[in-house]
Design a protein that fits this description.
6 helices; 45% helix; mainly alpha; 124 residues; single chain
């Protein structure tokens, strides 16, 4: 029993970065890159949908925003913008959702940057 628990703990620790441990202040600064297309403080849209309340929201679920067909298809799978999904998407948006309109956006390759940005998004 003890060996099983130890192995489970190792697997969990190797699963990826702990996005909950990101730096909110650093994430807020990083969000300035996103602010060109996304608002975070209200429900209005720019070129991208409002990210107010994005963490925990179903993908492509903001009413009044015209999502790309690729993002609508991804949302139709029941996907939710949780820490894991956001982390993978932010790592390389065009690979994670082929056909997304975020093609001109540089990916956040560093785990720490993604963790920081997600920590900030969780505060919205």
């Amino acid at each position: 029993m003890r060996l099983h628990f130890s192995l489970s703990l190792i697997v969990v620790m190797m699963a990826g970065p702990a996005f909950a441990d990101g730096d909110v202040a650093a994430g807020e600064k990083l969000f300035q890159r996103c602010n060109v297309c996304h608002l975070a403080t209200d429900s209005n849209h720019r070129n991208g949908p409002s990210l107010l309340g994005v963490v925990g929201r179903q993908v492509a679920a903001v009413k009044g925003f015209a999502y790309s067909d690729a993002m609508k298809a991804f949302g139709a799978t029941g996907a939710v913008w949780d820490e894991r999904t956001l982390g993978e998407f932010l790592k390389n948006p065009t690979e994670f959702v082929k056909g997304t309109r975020m093609s001109g956006v540089p990916p956040l390759r560093r785990d720490t940057e993604r963790a920081d940005l997600i920590a900030y998004l969780k505060t919205l």
